[in-house]
Design a protein that fits this description.
The protein is mostly helical and 497 residues long. The protein has 2 domains: 116 residues, no CATH class; 298 residues, Neurolysin, domain 3, CATH 1.10.1370. It contains 20 helices and 3 strands. The protein is globular, with a radius of gyration of 22 Å. It starts with a helix and ends with a helix.
Length: 497
């Protein structure tokens, strides 16, 4: 066997182990009884240690050195070697004991977070979250020393390979300067419109689920390779060719869960569209979380909050819930789904105020990783930031710093990819519609094939063949440009109707 084939076989085994972890994690979040938490934590910790051992196998260095000299390899194989070396370099920075400790701390913290969030009890979560944060600092420092990066950039690198806080600071400072004035303009435009009539519920969860399934099918989700369930925090997870999504239902308001389903479907379409020939190889993985978030936000924000889509979907909503009257008109539904109103909850935030939620979390997690702020001060700092950036007074920690699972689950460095993803989504959708004139008319008929086809060819099917910047430049003709996102916001939200 060649050195490359040895590597490919080895990382195929790692992928199989990762798939098992993915299904167990999904089960922990969706179906596992509380009494199994301690046992599951032990199992997950062992699997993480086993995976870490495979990724840091001493033979990998020798295989890489020999394979990188193989002139017969093609572009995909060379890119796979690049990704393997990146992963191996990062993972060898971590001792197995630190991987095991982090896995156990995360499992315990996630379980405690569910109760803490329900009870608005930050004090009860604090010791668990402190342990996760302490271990994340150690992980960031260890990876940073190996990569020559600050600790935060080393953590960010796990989600956004090649990303840096310096670049994000510039983008986010620009957005933070733009959004307050723009939001005031939007609110003034909205104030000149007639008041929206409320949608009268209740909206049974099973009916919401059935409608969500119908629209998932319209977007192109493959139910032979996935499923829809309920969880505390909506997510897309599972394994290769078993891509599962979740949502949560409010029987007083169906609109949030429905868009949540469409958002997660965007993630799932990316996972289901990855190159099958390299599905169990690093080069076949998704190209970082800003691109992943762009796929969910492209579907939810760019496509499914558009007038063409809502002209198609509103009659389905009306029929599902036996709605009638002006509140169920497609134009009223468009206004409802594009209404701007500062609020407490990130996942329910509108497209205009959403970046402020991300900027706040990004700034806080940077300070916490740098040990520039005690963790006990997080609720106060959070509430102060929400007042400053969004002008809202947070009434309790359930609606404040306890709302997201990311920090309890060890996802430090993840948050900025949401707004990077929003900017990427605008740029990709703009390029797709210019390249394929049939996309918007298709969306208006509930036919997403032209859009998904373009994404399959330009994003999904490329896996990690290219760097993030190269992928975006090849697809759109330029690297990430915030001006496209701003132009989209101005077109959609300053229109006088």
């Amino acid at each position: 066997m060649t050195a490359y084939s040895e590597l490919a076989g080895h990382f195929g085994r790692i992928a199989a182990l990762s798939n098992a972890v993915g299904i167990l994690q999904w089960d922990s979040d969706v179906m596992m009884p509380k009494g199994a938490a301690e046992t599951r934590a032990e199992s997950m910790a062992l699997l993480h240690v086993l995976r870490h051992g495979l990724v840091t196998e001493p033979r990998i260095g020798d295989w890489l050195a020999r394979a990188e000299d193989d002139a017969t390899l093609g572009a995909w194989e060379k890119a796979n070697l690049r990704e393997i070396r990146r992963i191996w370099t990062v993972e060898t920075a971590l001792p197995a004991a630190l991987v095991e400790a982090s896995s156990k701390a995360v499992s315990a913290c996630e379980m405690r977070w569910r109760q803490a969030r329900a009870d608005s009890d930050f004090a009860g979560l604090l010791p668990f979250l402190s342990e996760v944060l302490n271990l994340q600092r150690q992980i960031g420092q260890a990876k940073g020393e190996k990569l020559g990066l600050p600790a935060y950039d080393a953590l960010l690198n796990d989600y956004e390979p090649g990303g840096s806080a310096a670049r994000i600071d510039a983008l986010f400072d620009d957005l933070a300067a733009f959004l307050p004035g723009f939001t005031r303009e939007v609110m003034e435009v909205q104030a000149r419109r007639p008041a929206l009539e409320p949608l009268e519920g209740p909206f049974p969860a099973e009916t919401q689920r059935a409608l969500g399934l119908r629209l998932m099918a319209a977007l192109g989700y493959d139910f032979e390779r996935g499923r829809l369930d309920i969880s505390t925090h909506p997510f897309c997870g599972g394994a290769d060719n078993d891509v599962r999504i979740t949502t949560r239902y409010d029987e007083g308001d169906f609109t949030k869960a429905l868009m949540g389903v469409l958002h997660e479907t965007g993630h799932a379409l990316y996972e289901q569209g990855r190159p099958q020939a390299y599905l169990n190889q690093p080069v076949g993985a998704a190209r970082g979380m800003s691109v992943h978030e762009s796929q969910s936000l492209l579907m939810e924000m760019q496509a499914c909050r558009s007038r063409p889509f809502l002209a198609f979907a509103t009659p389905l909503m009306r029929d599902a819930f036996a709605g009638s009257g002006p509140a169920w008109d497609s134009e009223a539904m468009w206004r409802r789904y594009t209404r701007v109103e500062p609020g407490f909850i990130r996942v329910d935030a509108d497209e205009v105020t959403y970046p402020a939620h991300i900027i706040l979390r990004y700034r806080l997690e940077k300070a916490l990783i740098a040990d520039a702020m005690p963790l006990a001060e997080l609720p106060a700092a959070w509430n102060e930031g929400m007042a400053s950036l969004l002008g809202v007074a947070v009434p309790n920690d359930r609606l404040g710093c306890l709302q997201d699972i990311h920090w309890p689950s060890g996802g430090w460095g993840y948050f900025p990819t949401y707004s990077l993803g929003a900017m990427t989504a605008a740029q990709l959708f703009d390029a797709a519609c210019r390249a394929e004139p049939g996309i918007l008319p298709g969306i208006g008929r509930g036919d997403f094939a032209p859009l998904v086809g373009w994404l399959r060819a330009n994003i999904h099917g490329k896996g990690s063949l290219l760097s993030t910047d190269a992928l975006l430049t090849e697809a759109t003709g330029r690297p990430l440009d915030a001006s496209v996102f701003k132009a989209h916001l101005r077109r959609r939200y300053l229109e006088e109707v």
